[in-house]
Design goal:
InterPro entries: Phage/GTA_portal, Portal_HK97. This protein is an alpha+beta fold. The chain folds into 3 domains: 277 residues, no CATH class; 45 residues; 54 residues, no CATH class. 42% of the residues lie in helices and 14% in strands. Strands 1, 4, 5 and 9 form a 4-stranded antiparallel sheet that branches. The chain has a 3-stranded antiparallel sheet with strand order 3-2-12. β7 and β8 form a beta hairpin. The longest helix is centred in the C-terminal third of the chain and has 28 residues. It is flat, with a radius of gyration of 30 Å.
């Protein structure tokens, strides 16, 4: 028998809007931590946004287990309106943002339903949550210095090591990578903003005073702007200046940083401004979508499904509908429907529901009998 620490008598606990992570102009969001600095780096923002948006966009359902069977259960309030502020999408997005940036998501359970199970959870800013002993068998949590009751904090770690409760923060462990990327961006900005190197020079062996140089530059600019031939005379030569190789390396540094961050988060490099080997065809683009779901998102989804299932009775489990990500073309979709109906996996009404169509009248679309069995029965008549 499992111990379910989150169930209790129906209750609703007050929490101010300013307590919620990311609400309004909370000073906690504006702190100059490594997390906020890292988000200023494009690849980090792109990688965490891709993961958070992808997970938050998937439908979250509840299923009831009956032996080896799994049946749809009514969607609990926690999966319909999980927080006082924002939508279910926002709620999942905050959770993933905390996990991908800090390696931990901390949820304060603020309401319990009539069945005794949590009905609302507010995600807390990681800086406001502390644990008394990271190696303890039973954790003791503090929120803004106040000790929380047992079963009041819902914790999801992202990357764990044996013997520890807290997950590892990718931003903290790869601070060198993000700092290098930020410095490269700063160098590029300063370079173009300050114009520290002229774009070209006009060279001559003759002595040119300030007034003559001003006239020479004015004549050159006037002709160049008019796209006319420039006649300078006196042996004056034009020489363009490019960015020196050692200083232009910041561009390569930015690309390398994007590839490293893509590897850290397990996302395709081209999604975060990096480069991938080989050329992409239509087939590989489609396969990349499947790979993104299988190798990148699936581990995150499995982690969240197991965690959210602890917030439901032992006979229920939470599951994401990953089919929502696999939007195929019409022909491929209809072919899969045909196979699904032929083997009795779905009935006609279920397939029509996927296309937002009403069920057939008089229960005509409720039959699950495989089509081969139907054809055989018809031939035997």
């Amino acid at each position: 028998m499992k111990w379910w620490p989150f169930r209790r008598t129906a209750l609703k606990r007050a929490i101010s809007y300013q307590d919620v992570w990311g609400a309004g102009a909370d000073p906690a969001v504006l702190r100059g931590t490594g997390q906020e600095r890292a988000l200023r780096l494009g690849p980090v923002y792109a990688a965490t946004r891709l993961l958070a948006d992808s997970v938050a966009s998937l439908p979250l359902k509840s299923f009831r287990t009956d032996g080896d069977d799994r049946l749809r259960a009514p969607t609990p309030p926690l999966f319909r309106r999980p927080a006082a502020t924002g939508t279910r999408y926002d709620w999942l997005h905050r959770c993933m943002t905390s996990l991908t940036l800090r390696g931990n998501a901390y949820g304060l359970i603020v309401a319990w339903g009539p069945d005794g199970w949590p009905s609302q959870i507010e995600w807390l800013h990681p800086d406001d949550v502390h644990i008394q002993d990271n190696l303890a068998a039973v954790p003791v949590w503090y929120y803004k210095g106040r000790r929380l009751e047992d079963g009041q904090l819902f914790h999801i770690p992202a990357y764990t090591v044996p013997g520890q409760i807290l997950g590892l923060s990718p931003i903290a462990y790869f601070a060198t990578t993000t700092e290098a990327g930020l410095l490269a961006n700063q160098f590029g900005r300063d370079w173009f903003a300050n114009g520290s190197t002229p774009s070209a020079v006009l060279e001559t062996d003759m002595v040119v005073d300030r007034d003559a140089a001003t006239i020479l530059k004015a004549r050159f600019k006037e002709a160049a702007e008019g796209r006319d031939v420039v006649a300078l005379g006196n042996g004056v030569k034009y020489r363009a200046i490019s960015v020196p190789a050692n200083e232009s390396q910041f561009l390569e540094t930015i690309k390398a940083t994007a590839n490293q961050i893509a590897a850290i988060y397990g996302v395709p490099p081209e999604k975060v401004g990096g480069e991938t080997g080989g050329s992409l065809t239509y087939a590989t683009v489609e396969q990349n979508s499947i790979d993104l779901l299988t190798w990148t998102l699936r581990p995150w989804l499995a982690r969240l499904e197991d965690a959210f299932s602890w917030l439901r009775p032992p006979t229920e489990e939470a599951r994401f509908n990953v089919d929502a990500m696999l939007r195929t073309d019409t022909l491929t979709r209809y072919q899969s429907y045909r196979i699904s109906r032929a083997i009795g996996l779905h009935n006609i009404d279920e397939l029509r529901r996927l296309e937002d169509e009403p069920p057939l009248p008089n229960g005509l679309g409720t039959d699950y009998t495989p089509l081969k069995s139907v054809a055989r029965d018809e031939s035997e008549k």
